[in-house]
Amino acid sequence: MNANILWVDDEIELLKPHLLFLKDKGYSIDCCNNGYDALDAIGENRYDLIILDEMMPGMTGLETLAKIKEIRPDTPVVMVTKSEEENIMDRAVGSKIADYLIKPVNPNQVLLSIKKNLHADTLVSQTNTEDYRQQFAHINTLFSEARSFDEWCVIYKKLVGWDIELSDNSDKSMREVLNYQKTEANNEYAKFIKRNYEEWFKDKTLSRPIMSHTLLRNKVFPIVDKHKKVVFMLIDNFRYDQWLMIRPLMRGFCDVTSEEFYCSILPTATQYARNALFAGLTPAAIEKIMPGLWLNDNEEGGKNQYEEDFLRRQLQSLGRNYRMSFDKLVRPDSGKKLVDNLDKFYNNDLSVIVYNFLDILSHARTDTEIIRELAEDEAAFRSLTRSWFEHSDLLEIMRRLSEKGHTLIITSDHGTTHVDNPIKILGDRETSTNLRYKTGRNLNYNPKEVFEITEPEKVHLPKSNITSSYVFATGSDFLVYPNNYNHYVRYYRNTFQHGGVSMEEMIVPFIVLSPR
C-alpha cells in the first residue's frame, strides 16, 4: 500500500509521531509548513494524497486548496482544522475535498482517511472476494434444495447482489467462479421449471406463484383500492439488477415500500407475457374469449396493439370503476410530451405507463456495433441503463407524480438474458422466429437441450394448428436453424434476448414506491 503523501501544516514539527507512524506503514511523506512551499512541492512532484491544515499564517488552507485544485485537480485533499465553524466546513466540502478531520487527530484517524481515499477499491475488492468465498457453498446448497418459486427468488437476489459487488473486482478468477455459479443456478432453475410449470396451471394449485395473468388483480388493484392515485409503470425488459442500479436515483422523492417478484409466463415475450398481464387471462383464454384481438406467431400484424382494451375489460369484469389513463411510450419524443401533460394524471385512480426504451436498447445492442461496445457485458449494460434512466423523461415523470402524492409501481412483463450458446433446431416456414423459443409443427430438436411443451393446452398456450408445440431455450442458449448457421451464430452470440427459461427472464421485479 505504498503511496506518496504531502502533509502541509505550520506546526509540522509537532506531528513527528504521526509521520513516523505513517512511514512505518510504508508511506512516503513529504512535509511543508506553509501554503507557498506546498504549491512549489506540488508543482515539482506528483502526490497520491495531500493532507492540508486549514489555519496557517500567510496563505490559509482554503486559499491553498483553491491553488492546489488548479495545479492538481484530481489529487485528493484531506483538510485538517481546529475550527468547527460550519461555514468553513461548507466551503471545504464545496471545494470537493476528500475528507475533513478535526484537530487533535490521532495517527489511526489519519491512516483510516488515507486508506479510505487511496485503497478503498482494493480493500473492498479483497473483502468482497473473501465474503463471496464464504457464501459460495451456502448458495450452492440453496439452489440444490430449492423447491418453490419464492426460494428461487432468494437465490436470484443473492446472485444479482454478488454480480454487482464483484463487477469491478480486480480478482478475475473470482468473477469467473461467480459466472460459473450463475450458470449452474440457471441449469437447476430450468430443471425446477420443467418439474413444476405445468402443475402451476392446474386448478386449486396452492404452490403457484403470482404470474403474469394474476399480477394485476392480486398485487396492483388492491394497492389502488387502498391508496388511489397509483401510477403503474411497466418498463419492457426490466430486470432486478437494473432496478438496483436506478434505485439510488429515487431517494430524494420517494421511499421503497416493498421489493418483491412475480413469475413471467412462458414464452417470456411481449406478445404472451404482457398481453396476459393486462388481460388478466392466459394467452389461450385471450384467444378463446377475444379471437379478434389475438394473433399467433405465424400470423401477420402487431402482436401487442390491444393492451389498453385488455386492461379495461379486466377492470370491468372485476367491477373496478377506476378513473384511468393508459400511455404507451415507444418514440423518443413521447416522454417529453407526457411530461408536458402530467396534469391529466392528477385525478386518476390508476395511471398506466408502458415504457419500451430498454427493449429498444436490447435490440439496438444486437443490431448496432457501437451499442455492443458500450454494453459489452452485464455490468456495462447495467451502467448504460442507469445513465439512460438518470437523464430520462421517465425519472422526471416519476419525480413529479411522487411530489403530487402518487404511489408508484415499477415492474416489467419479462426480463432478458445474455446468450452465448447456439442450439440447433429444425422447423418449417410457419415456425416462429424468436431465438429463445419456437412454436410450430414438425419441430426437430434434441429434447435434452430444451424445455419442450408438446401439449400447449396444459399450460394455457394457444395452438396455431392441431400438432403445434413449444420449445424453449434455457440458460444462455439460443435456437438457430442449420441453414446459414455460422452467420446467425456470429450475429446473435453475446446479445441479450428473451422468450425462454432463465431466472433473468422469468423472475420479474415488482417494486412499490411511496411518496415522501
General description of the model:
The chain has 516 residues and is α/β, with parallel strands linked by helices. It has a 6-stranded mixed beta sheet with strand order 7-18-10-6-9-8, sandwiched between helices. Strands 2-1-3-4-5 form a 5-stranded parallel beta sheet, with helices on both faces. The radius of gyration is 28 Å and the shape is elongated. 44% of the residues lie in helices and 18% in strands. The longest helix has 26 residues, at 120-145. The chain has helices spanning 16-24, 35-44, 61-71, 86-94, 107-118, 120-145, 149-165, 172-196, 215-227, 240-246, 270-279, 283-289, 307-317, 334-339, 357-367, 369-374, 378-390, 393-403, 485-492, 503-506; strands at residues 4-8, 28-32, 49-53, 77-81, 99-102, 230-235, 254-263, 324-329, 350-355, 407-411, 417-419, 421-424, 437-440, 451-453, 469-472, 477-480, 495-497, 507-515.
In short:
The chain is an alpha/beta fold and 516 residues long. The chain is built from 20 helices and 18 strands.
Give the topology.
Elements lengths: L3 E5 L7 H9 L3 E5 L2 H10 L4 E5 L7 H11 L5 E5 L4 H9 L4 E4 L4 H12 L1 H26 L3 H17 L6 H25 L18 H13 L2 E6 L4 H7 L7 E10 L6 H10 L3 H7 L17 H11 L6 E6 L4 H6 L10 E6 L1 H11 L1 H6 L3 H13 L2 H11 L3 E5 L5 E3 L1 E4 L12 E4 L10 E3 L15 E4 L4 E4 L4 H8 L2 E3 L5 H4 E9 L1
Parallel strand pairs: 1-2, 1-3, 3-4, 4-5, 6-9, 6-10, 8-9, 12-16
Antiparallel strand pairs: 7-18, 10-18, 11-17, 13-15, 14-15
